[in-house]
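[step 3/7] fold_predict: job queued, chain A
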Amino acid sequence: MAYSINMMSVAQLHPPLDNIQQIHGFPITQGFFSAKAAGEPLDGNAVIEAEDTVQTLVLSQKHWPQVIQDDVVETAKNRAHLLRQMHATTQFGHPAIDHPGLHQFLQQQFDQINQRFDQQQAITQNIRIVARNQRSLDSPLLPLQKYIPGDGNALAQGLASTPAQVQAVQIFQPNGNIGAVMPNFNPQVDAYGHVDVLHLIIFYNDNFGIAYGDQLPQRKHKIRTWLLEHF
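[step 4/7] structure written:
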């Protein structure tokens, strides 16, 4: 039997960790970097390795909590669980690809892991974008990449204070993908009106710390702070 989907490694799902020098000195076992491609034969050692990696990361987190954070441990747990599920199904009953509903379940689990990977990639790029914005204050601000899934219409609705703003929120449905930037982004934040701010909130699914009582100058200040200091 073979794997029906790609099983990326924990390291691939959290690429920023590979740039941290200390990570290479942690006793995290080869399982941190282990990956399986769709079509590869099932490997019984992969499950043991994945579960050992979870235990090692849990122990390492106690000593290095700033490096081994909760989301890394959660990824390792999900990966081990998914591997165990695939192996168990092939051993007891039908192959994973034939088991009713299981392939859909595995694909959903994989999609969640893949989304997390995309989020990590966007966050990594945003760190660089913010650093560039800080270094080049005389140049137009660059937009950050979207890393929170979904649209923020509900967030914007709670900050709209006039019928025109409410209508603008209702009709704006950008459906932005993770890693995308705001279409037609205007780097001149001082020129923003209320609707411009609300559209940013919807696209990024983030209220940038804006409260209902904030006036337009305060809202623009928080947008600018987000572009310059978010990470």
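[step 5/7] annotate
The first helix runs from residue 10 to 13.
The mean pLDDT is 84.
exit 0
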